[in-house]
Every structure is written in structure tokens, then in C-alpha cells.
UniProtKB/TrEMBL annotation:
Keyword Signal: yes
Identification of the protein by name: Bifunctional metallophosphatase/5'-nucleotidase
Gene Ontology MF terms in the entry: 5'-nucleotidase activity; nucleotide binding; UDP-sugar diphosphatase activity
Start and end residues of each 5'-Nucleotidase C-terminal domain: 414-573
Keywords from the UniProt entry: Hydrolase, Nucleotide-binding, Signal
Calcineurin-like phosphoesterase domain location: 32-268
Stated family: Belongs to the 5'-nucleotidase family.
Record organism: Photobacterium frigidiphilum
Length: 660
């Protein structure tokens, strides 16, 4: 059974809100928009929890079959009311689960094409494979992928892709919707809406596999696109973006004429979820004043991992100005609840306790019990799930209590120390890099390890823990480990710059650094703008008896980290700077089952990309005899050898003091 809240009340309230703000109600065009973003191949639900009636409730949120159920409900509601309706995806459908590791873009294409999506932004993780596979994905879905600030004409794989477009124009007659292809022959008796895409202009730095696609300034491209559309006579303009909530707000403050931004990339679940024991991560449907001081842009985003869906109504006057913008995000829950994260049979709520939770949910606007679409669930279970279950491999540990990963300390209810998963992974990579087998290849004893929060995709869930939980889900990117000698001053610059870059609310926090055998403290001095690095210390003892020593600016330390961050990608620029002339780094992959080292000569900057130059041959991760996911293998080996019962480290790695 699906416990849908009355959609009637929301729709009527939004319509009345629009009418109340316009002196000419008949002139207001109301558009209902449903939206998702950063779904990251989470076809199955995500194990989660919330608070109800003062108690912790362990449940599941989302998954594609639940998204489909709710999206269909929204679409049917709009149809019954004859409302104009769009369903948009803010990008990053790819990556993030074992399904993607095995099926790459094919499963996303099949399932997303069943959702009646109107358009999707091009996300950075859509470039995780190569442009040939991206081109196949874009060509096989039944909705367009949008990016107005790119030029793919020189890319061999994407140059002829007609489903990768800068914008779309839709003509509405109530709920009837038609695509307009000729901007010189616009219908005069229908409401017109343009949807254009904006992607990261530093994409080449974040996603090295961009081929020969060129990326252009977001602000300039957005303004140029809006001006062109308005010159053609289209005044109602929506941007679907994958640039992060704080950047969306910045774009809205610098570009005239965007009415609505539907965003992604920062995984921001906008709205106040404190009623569920969660965070308030910012205003849903925030209105931002344009630089002309007259227009305003409504900004929304819907979280991450297919757990929630947003819906709003935006009203336009005859000039295309926003006169109302209202709505909310809704978390989509199952109806089985447990008292403990392991979710054992004896920990399940009884009927009376379940009913109390159901009644609580029915009173809350931002959470809904939602059935999975039966056909899509069956498709996943029959066609895809058996191979995934088989790929998980052997059990390596038990996890008594769920261990939480959060990118930035203080977000989503975490404390000032943030993730408990990231330090464990870094500790595992420190351990692995210092084993005799690895030291024999690198010739270096590692002092500490570092990891960027965005490379970690899951919590460590309670219960049985298998190899695939690490290699297929938590660390799915198949990065190889690097051991890099670098001065302490570069480490301090790295920590300072990456933490500072994540201070603005809604910023993309994937670059946030954690470590193993190293700790630091950072204090925010001006809320969301500035801070200072208080201390960085290296651990020379053991986990049971840690000994901390202040980092030496002039000392060269050997650090273990994955090759993506070691190259300076995603804002880890000080490591590029340290290697642009010469590097003592060694990259590590298995060739024919034997651990092999690849000596790095230096890193060059080619356009906006960093290129690693090797002393000899480079690792060929596409070769059948080469296994490059040594970042995941390091964690697997560490858990199997040292942590058969997985618990957080005994010491804290990060202390992040927020400004009060």
C-alpha cells in the first residue's frame, strides 16, 4: 500500500499563492516542476534512519522504483488538473553502485527511460568511463541531455550526438506539451518554456575523461543563452544545472532572466528536515535577486542517491518574471521499520509501533511512505540483481553498528569531526602502503594517508561486510594508489585551500580532506566565507597509543593517496604544484597478478587538464591483465587482516570548528 498525502492540498495552495501575488491572476502561467539529481545508480533503496515520536527509526529511502511511483503520481495529478508539467534531472545519474560497475550506463538508460523525464543536465560523473560509452548512453535514452556551455564538435565520439543539446523549448496548452524545434516559428497561442543546461566550466579538472569536449564560462554562457532565447520571444526560462547549490545561487545573482534553477552536484537536500532529526540545509525554492535588481531566480535541489524528489510550482507573469515559487522536497520511505541498524528480524517494529510511525509520517509534509513500482522492481530483480549479488565476493568482516560517512563535518547531523568512514579508509591505505610487499615496490615508508571525501560513496552498513561492499560500492572508481613524497608546507596548503573551498553553504564538498595517521584542526572565522588552519599533526604511534608531532613545513613526507587526488584534481592543486617540475611519486597497479610500480616524472597542465608523465610506461587500466583498483584493494586487505570487526578509529582525524 502507498500512503500518499493528498496532492490536492498542495496544488491548490500553490495556485492560490500565485494568484495572491499577481494583480492579474489570468495572466499568470503556472508550471509544476518535479525534479531529482545525483541519483548515482542507486536503483535499490538506501538504508537510512530518521526520528519519529522521539525514537530512532531505521528504514530505507528511495530507489528508482519508488522514484518512479512518485513521479508517476505527480504526473497523473498534473494531468487531472490540466497543469503544465516538467520532470527534470539535475545530472550525475552515473556511478555510485555495484550495478553501475557491472552494467555501466546501460541500466541507467533502461530505467531512466521509463520515468518520463523531460531533460537532464550533464553531470561530471557522466564522464567517468569514456566518451564512446557516454555517447551510447545519451543516444539510447528517450530524453535529452542538456549543456549550453560546452562544445563537443571536435570530440570524435560526441560530435554527431543530436540528443546532447544546449536547450529545449516546450509549448504548453495546459497539460498538453509539445517540443518546439524551430525558434523562428514559435506558436503564438501557447505558453513557452525554455530549459537550458549548465555544467561545470572546470569539468576537465574534475573529470579527466572529457576527451576533446570544450567547456566555457558558466555565467557568460548562461547570459548569452538567456539573451538569445528572449530575443526569439521566449520569456519563461529554466536552467537545469550540475554545478552545486552555492554556485547556482551565485549564477542567479550574476545572470539576468533565469526564472528557475533546478540544480545538482552538491547533493543538497534543501528544506527543513529537523522534524525528522535531520538538518536544515537551506531554503527550498530560495528566491535570489538578479543583478538588474528587478528580476529574481528561484533555486532548488533535491539531495542525493534517489532518496527524495522535489516538486514546486513556479508562476510567470506575461513578461516572464517569477511571481511565485513554492514547493518542497519529499523523502520516499518504505514501511518496514527497525530499532537497530543491523535490521535483524527480532529488531523489527511490531504492528503497534509501526502504526505509530505511519501516523507520524502522515502528519509530516517532507516524508512519505511510497510503494516501489512493481514492474521496475521485478525488472531489477530478474535482469540485473543476480549478477550483482554474485559479484560481491567473500565476507571479510562484521560491522556491529553502522559507520557514517558525511563529506563535510557538521552536515546532515554529524559532529565537528565529520566522517567516521573516511579516516578508516585512509588508515587502511596507510597500512597497505606500509606492508612489505608494497614497500618493496615503492622503496618508501609512508608517513600518513589522505583521501578526498567525494571518492567515498557509501556508509559502512551494519551486518555482514563483503569485498564488494568496498570495491563495488564504497570505492567504485577503480583508482590506483599512489605514494608521493611532498613537503609539509604543501600538505598544509592543500588542507587549507580545500577546506576553505567547501565553506559556502551548498558548496560541493567532494574535495574535503580526511586522513589516516594525520589530524588537523580548522576554525571558521567568518561563517561560510573564511577560516584558518589551526594545526596539522602527524601520528607516529599506534591507534591504541597515538603520539602526535607537529608537521614540519620543510620536511618531505611520503603520503599514500589515490591517483586522482595525487594528480591535483578536484581542487587538490597544491599537489600538482609540487609535481609540475619533478615528482618522486610511484603509482601502483596489479599486472598479471603482480603488484607493479610506475614512476612518475612530473605532471603537466594541458589546457585545463593535468597530465601525468611517467619515466617509462604508464599503467594501462583498460588492459585485461591489469587491475587498477588498488585503492579499494588496500581497504579490503586492511579489513581482512586487521579489522574483522569494523569499528571507527579510536582517534579523531578532523576537527572543524564552525563559526557561531
Amino acid at each position: 500500500m502507498t500512503f500518499f498525502k493528498p496532492l490536492t492540498a498542495l496544488s491548490v495552495a500553490l495556485i492560490l499563492a500565485g494568484c495572491s501575488q499577481s494583480s492579474q491572476p489570468d495572466a499568470v502561467f503556472n508550471l509544476t516542476v518535479a525534479h531529482i539529481n545525483d541519483t548515482h545508480s542507486n536503483f535499490d533503496p538506501v538504508k537510512s534512519s530518521f526520528e519519529a515520536n522521539g525514537n530512532k527509526v531505521y528504514n530505507e529511502f528511495g530507489g528508482y522504483p519508488r522514484l518512479l511511483t512518485m513521479a508517476d503520481e505527480y504526473q497523473q495529478d498534473a494531468k487531472q488538473r490540466n497543469d503544465s508539467f516538467l520532470f527534470l534531472h539535475g545530472g550525475d545519474a552515473w556511478q555510485g553502485s555495484a550495478y553501475f560497475k557491472l552494467n555501466q550506463g546501460a541500466m541507467n538508460a533502461e530505467l531512466l527511460s521509463k520515468m518520463n523525464i523531460d531533460a537532464m543536465a550533464l553531470g561530471n560523473h557522466e564522464f567517468d568511463l569514456n566518451n564512446k560509452k557516454l555517447n551510447k548512453f545519451i543516444g539510447s535514452i528517450n530524453f535529452p541531455v542538456l549543456a549550453a556551455n560546452i562544445d563537443a564538435s571536435e570530440d570524435a565520439d560526441l560530435k554527431d550526438q543530436t540528443n546532447l543539446r544546449p536547450f529545449m523549448v516546450y509549448a504548453f496548452d495546459g497539460n498538453q506539451k509539445a517540443v518546439v524545434d524551430d525558434l523562428d516559428k514559435l506558436p503564438t497561442d501557447k505558453d513557452l518554456v525554455a530549459v537550458f543546461g549548465i555544467v561545470l566550466d572546470d569539468m576537465a579538472n574534475i573529470s579527466p575523461n572529457t576527451g576533446d569536449v570544450q567547456f566555457f564560462n558558466m555565467v557568460e554562457s548562461a547570459q548569452t543563452t538567456v539573451d538569445m532565447l528572449k530575443a526569439k520571444g521566449i520569456n519563461n526560462i529554466v536552467a537545469v544545472t550540475h554545478i552545486g547549490n552555492s554556485v547556482d545561487v551565485d549564477i542567479a545573482s550574476k545572470v539576468n532572466g533565469i526564472d528557475l534553477i533546478v540544480g545538482g552536484h552538491s547533493h543538497t537536500l534543501l528544506g527543513d528536515f529537523t522534524n525528522l532529526g535531520m538538518n536544515n540545509d537551506g531554503i527550498y525554492a530560495q528566491l535570489v535577486r538578479n543583478p538588474n535588481g528587478v528580476g529574481q531566480t528561484c533555486v532548488v535541489q533535491a539531495g542525493q542517491y534517489a532518496q527524495a524528489i522535489g516538486r514546486l510550482q513556479v508562476g510567470f507573469n506575461q513578461q516572464g518574471d517569477v511571481v511565485n515559487c513554492n514547493g518542497r522536497n519529499t523523502l520516499l520511505s518504505n514501511d518496514e521499520f527497525y530499532t537497530q541498524p543491523a535490521r535483524q528480524k527480532n529488531e523489527k517494529f511490531d504492528a503497534a509501533a509501526t502504526q505509530r510511525v505511519v501516523e507520524f509520517i502522515e502528519q509530516e509534509d517532507n516524508i512519505e511512505i511510497t510503494d516501489e513500482d512493481a514492474n521496475m522492481r521485478n525488472l531489477i530483480n530478474v535482469k540485473y540483481k543476480p549478477a550483482v549479488d554474485k559479484a560481491y565476493g567473500k565476507t571479510i568482516a562484521q560491522v556491529p553498528v553502522e559507520i557514517i560517512h558525511e563529506r563535510r563535518p557538521g552536515d546532515r547531523g554529524t559532529d565537528k569531526h565529520g566522517s567516521d568512514v573516511a579516516p578508516l579508509i585512509a588508515e587502511g591505505q596507510y597500512y597497505w602502503a606500509n606492508t612489505a610487499a608494497v614497500q618493496k615496490v615503492t622503496g618508501m615508508k609512508v608517513d600518513f594517508a589522505l583521501i578526498g571525501a567525494g571518492g567515498i560513496r557509501t556508509n559502512i552498513e551494519a551486518g555482514e561486510y563483503r569485498e564488494g561492499n568496498v570495491s563495488l560500492e564504497m570505492l567504485p572508481f577503480s583508482n590506483f594508489m599512489s605514494v608521493l613524497p611532498v613537503k609539509g608546507s604543501a600538505i598544509k596548503a592543500l588542507i587549507d585551500s580545500t577546506v576553505t573551498a567547501t565553506l559556502p553553504e551548498g558548496s560541493h564538498a567532494g574535495k574535503f580532506p580526511y586522513g589516516g595517521h594525520i589530524r588537523y584542526s580548522f576554525t571558521e572565522t567568518k561563517a561560510q566565507e573564511a577560516g584558518k588552519l589551526d594545526a596539522v599533526e602527524i601520528m607516529t604511534g599506534t591507534e591504541a597509543n597515538p603520539v602526535w608531532t607537529k608537521i614540519d613545513n620543510n620536511k618531505v613526507y611520503n603520503i599514500a593517496l589515490n591517483n586522482y587526488n595525487a594528480t591535483g584534481n578536484d581542487g587538490w592543486t597544491p599537489l600538482y604544484e609540487a609535481q609540475k617540475n619533478s615528482s618522486g611519486r610511484v603509482d601502483l597497479a596489479y599486472v598479471d597478478g603482480k603488484l607493479t610500480g610506475y614512476d612518475v616524472k612530473n605532471i603537466a597542465k594541458v589546457g585545463n587538464k593535468y597530465k601525468v608523465n611517467y619515466q617509462g610506461a604508464a599503467p594501462n587500466c583498460k588492459a585485461a591483465n591489469t587491475v587498477c583498483n588498488t585503492d579499494a584493494q588496500a581497504m579490503i586487505d586492511y579489513i581482512a587482516a586487521e579489522r574483522q570487526t569494523v569499528m571507527p578509529l579510536n582517534y579523531e582525524v578532523v576537527t572543524f570548528n564552525r563559526a557561531q
